Amino acid sequence: MRILVTNDDGIEALGIRQLVEALARVPGAEVYVAAPARQQSAKSHGITVHGEMEVEEVEYPWAKKAWKIDGTPADCADLGLEFMKMEGIPADILYSGINHGANVGTDILYSGTVGAAIEGLLNGVPAVAVSADRHFRAEFTPEDFAVAANAAAQLLPVALEAGTDFCLNLNAPSGAAAEVKGWKITSMGPREYEGGLHRGETFDGKTTFSYAGTTPKVYTDLSIDYDVMAVQEGYISVTPIARERTFEKVKENYRALEAWEVR
């Protein structure tokens, strides 16, 4: 079984190293890595359509082969899968992560981690996005990713059978495994941060803006069936994220438009 691993925090990030090791320890697994050369968070499903991407094959702990790519997470998923095909070792599944921070609620719309997983689906490969719920730390430790890494490896047999209509978005609490309450199958919930846009000024008087949201909102009135609430309450959350974005149940509400005269 061949697994391609990518991420959005960059190939040198601790999260992806922990994921690669956990998956490589699964009996019969061969792990390959194709990940961004630098930080690519919040790039969603963006790809590089102008310019060229530099690719370097590198040595990587626990991986059979690894490529460092100057591109987005979706680029890395696409190129990594192609490289494996070219070498006669097509991937059976793609994992993206472990992200340094949860990807729950509306964060999913911006997430490069989830974007790379969706790219796997578009290439005909089942995919899992993996994140650990530890935001805004100056430094991370292997313990921050232990639960997520072990959960990702445990999910592998199920993920292989999931098909390519959806990816599995796994979010795990950081901390000790003994403190995790269990698993929850969830839906995408809300996600809000305190703060917002910060206005600044350059030395030569030009106005700048940057995102200054820092602390995720703590919810008290949401159902545990939402991803954000499940993780907040200490559960491992798994959300099926569909690649098909058509809102089927309202299509008939607009069928009358087909009789409109074109102006």
Describe this structure in words.
The chain has 263 residues and is an alpha/beta fold. The chain has 6 helices and 11 strands. The strands form 2 sheets. Strands 3-4-2-1-5-6-7-11-8 form a 9-stranded mixed sheet, with helices on both faces. A two-stranded antiparallel sheet has the order 9-10. Helix 1 (14-24) links the parallel strand 1 and strand 2 (30-36). It is globular. The mean pLDDT is 94.
Secondary-structure map with pairings?
Blueprint: E1 2-6, H1 14-24, E2 30-36, E3 55-58, E4 65-69, H2 73-86, E5 93-100, H3 107-110, H4 112-122, E6 127-133, H5 146-160, E7 166-173, E8 182-185, E9 197-201, E10 207-211, H6 227-232, E11 235-242
Parallel strand pairs: 1-2, 1-5, 2-4, 5-6, 6-7, 8-11
Antiparallel strand pairs: 3-4, 7-11, 9-10
Helix pairs in contact: 1-5, 2-4
Q: Enumerate the strands of the largest sheet in spatial order, edge to edge or round the barrel.
A: 3-4-2-1-5-6-7-11-8
- Give the DSSP E fraction (strand runs of 2 or more residues): 25-35%
SS class: alpha/beta
Could you spell the SSE succession in H and E letters?
Answer: EHEEEHEHHEHEEEEHE
Overall average pLDDT: 94
As residue ranges, the low-confidence spans are none
Throw out a few tags for this protein.
263 residues; 25% strand; nine-stranded mixed sheet
What's the gist of this structure?
It contains six helices and eleven strands. The protein is of the alpha/beta class and 263 residues long.
